[in-house]
Amino acid sequence: MFKFIVLLGLVSSALCASLSSPAIDPEWEGFIVGGSTASAGQFPHQVSLRSSGNAHFCGGFIINNRWVGSAAHCTVGRTAANTISVVGTNSRTSGGVAHSTSRIVNHPSYNGNTLANDISMVFTASTITFNNLVQPITLGSAHVGGGVSATASGWGQTSHPGSAAANLQFLTKPTLTNADCRARHSAGNAARVFDNTICTFLRAGAGMCMGDSGGPLIAGGTVIGAVSWGIACAQGFPDVFARISSHRTWMINQM
After folding, report:
1. Is residue 51 annotated as part of the catalytic site, yes or no?
2. Does 212 qualify as catalytic in the annotation?
3. Rounded CA Rg of the chain
């Protein structure tokens, strides 16, 4: 049976968790395998979620001037005091504007074992100021099927094993239908491809991995997914995201 990971990187040699009990560690760092380096302002909605010690642990995306979207497995168990949203920089460690957190809202039906409803929202303590490097992105409302070109972005290594990249990486790949996604996974992992998830797949050697969790999947100028889980790392299996259109009403109701 293949092992799956939530896409945070662990500062240890243990990269994978069992299917029944995925390890979730906020001190992981990670990467997009087979991606390219983003230019300044290319992804102005991108957020780096960091600890109070400035350690990047997950990605996120700007919804409006106070709300950031991410994955619940990134934020469950975290305190507001130890969660910072950094906007306006492609650097994993410097630049940009840091916003402390007023509160964190995790989806009430999030399941840490199956990663069902893996979506969360962070309410910043200060207003996010928009400029050419900082912009919100629209929550996708339409159901996205297969064959749609979509772009994911995140920080970290460009190969595995390797050291974390200094700058934001991105990867464009087509979406899959959920039926196709399930067919490409083992039976155990296919059971975790819920109707309210969306998958992408390009090829072996190109995909998401630890540290990209919570980051945006965008298509047509809207965010259609938040990075949830995958098979470590870019081994030829689809990556799985929380489907934004399925969670959009819940997200709007929190604001």
Report:
1. no
2. no
3. 16
